[in-house]
Amino acid sequence: MKVKQRKIQPLYSLAGITTYFLKLGTWGFGGPVALIGYIQRDLVENKNWLTKEEYKEGLALAQLAPGPLAAQLGIYIGFVHYGLLGATLTGFAFVLPSFIIVVLLGMAYKVYGGLAWMQAVFYGVGAAVIGIIVMSAYKLTVKSISRFELPEMKSKWLLWLFYVLGIVVTVITEQEEVMLFLACGILYMLIKAPPKWIKKPTALPAGILVSTGFWNYEGKTLEEIGWFFAKAGAFVFGSGLAIVPFLHGGVVKEFGWLTEGQFVDSVAVAMITPGPVVITVGFIGYLVGGFPGACIAALATFLPCYLFTVTLAPFFKKIAKNPSIKAFVDGITAAVIGALVGSVIVIGMRSIKDIPTILIAIAAVLALLYIKKLQEPCIIAVAAVIGLLFKFI
C-alpha cells in the first residue's frame, strides 16, 4: 500500500513574507550585500522561515540571472512556496517603499534643484558618491574576479582581460556596450565550458540570446524610457551599482536626458534611500518624464529580473550546475564590472572639480575602509553638511 506524502507546509504565510519585504524595503539601507545579509539573518537564523539550502539556492539564482541581487532573492523566496502570486507580491512590496521615496525626492529636486542650498548639498554628496562607487567597484572586483594577488590574477587572466577591456571601452566611448558584454560571456563559455551541442552537434541550439513635473511627459520619450530601462535591467548582474555604466551611457550620452551633475545626483538619491540601489531608475524616470516616466522606468528595469526568476526557479537546480551557464555569467560579469570602473572614471572627471571634492571623495573611501559597519547614508549625510559648509562659510 502506497503512503501518500503530504506537502510540506511553509512556516510563513503569504501575508507574513509580503509584510517582511515591505518592511525591508522601507528600512533596509546599505545596498545589495547588506540587504541579502539582512534576509539571511532574519529569515534563516532568527525566524527559521527558510532553510540554509533554500537561501543558498535563491542566492545562486539571483547571482546567475541578470537583475538587482536583493530584489531577485526576494522574488525567489516568494515563489518557493507561493508561486507567481508570492513572487509578485514580495517583489512589489520590496520595491514600492523606495519607489515612493525617490518620486517624492524627484518632486523636491525639480522644485528646489536650482536653489543655492540644494546645489551645495549635492556638491558634497556628489563627491562622496564617487568615493562610494569606487569602494563598491573594488569589492565587486575582488568578489567576482579575484583578489589583487599575482597567482590568483594569473589563474583568472582571461577574466582580468575582459575587465580591463570593459574599463577601456567605457572610458573611450563613454557609454555602455552591450555587445561587448555578450561577446565576453560567449567567449569565456566557449573556452572554459563549451556546451555539449558544440562538441557533438545534434540539433540547432536555441538562441542565447505641475511644478514638480508630476505629469509632464511626451509619448515618444516614454517609449524610449521603456525600451532603454528594459535593456538595462536585462544586462545587469549582481550589484545594483553595476547598472551605473548602462544608465550613464544612455541618459547622459545617448539621449541627453540628464546632465552629468543630475546623473551623479540621481546616484546619490539611490544611496540615501532604503531598498534596492537600482531604484535610482525611478528618480531618473521622474526627472525625464514625470510620474509616468518614473513608473515605466521602474517597471521596465525590474520586469526582466522578475521574468528570469520565475522562469528559471522551477528547474533551477539543474541549470545552476551547468558549467557552460556559469562560465557565460562569469565572462559577462567581468566585463560589466570593468565598465563600472570605467564609468567611475568618466563621471569622476566631471564631478571631482576641485580640492574640496577630491578630499570628500577620498574621505568617503577611507571611511568605508576603516570604519566597520558604517552605512552609506551616514556618509551621504555628512557629505551634505560639508557641502553646505564649503559653499556658505
Describe this protein's structure:
The protein has 393 residues and is mainly alpha-helical. The protein has one domain (100-304, 313-392). Helix content is 76%, strand content 1%. It has 17 helices and two strands. The protein has helices spanning 14-27, 31-46, 52-64, 69-112, 116-144, 150-155, 157-173, 178-192, 196-199, 219-234, 244-254, 260-272, 280-312, 316-320, 323-351, 355-370, 376-392, and strands at 67-68, 237-238. It has a two-stranded parallel ribbon. Helix 1 crosses helix 4. The N and C termini lie far apart (86 Å).
Topology:
Layout: H1 14-27, H2 31-46, H3 52-64, E1 67-68, H4 69-112, H5 116-144, H6 150-155, H7 157-173, H8 178-192, H9 196-199, H10 219-234, E2 237-238, H11 244-254, H12 260-272, H13 280-312, H14 316-320, H15 323-351, H16 355-370, H17 376-392
Parallel strand pairs: 1-2
Helix pairs in contact: 1-4, 2-4, 3-4, 4-13, 5-12, 5-15, 5-16, 5-17, 7-8, 7-15, 8-15, 10-13, 12-13, 16-17
In percent terms, what proportion of residues is strand?
under 5%
Class from helix and strand fractions = mainly alpha
Q: Care to count the β-strands? A: 2
Over all CA atoms, what is the radius of gyration? 21 Å
Whole-number tally of structural domains: 1
Rounded mean pLDDT score: 79
What pattern of helices and strands is seen along the backbone? HHHEHHHHHHHEHHHHHHH
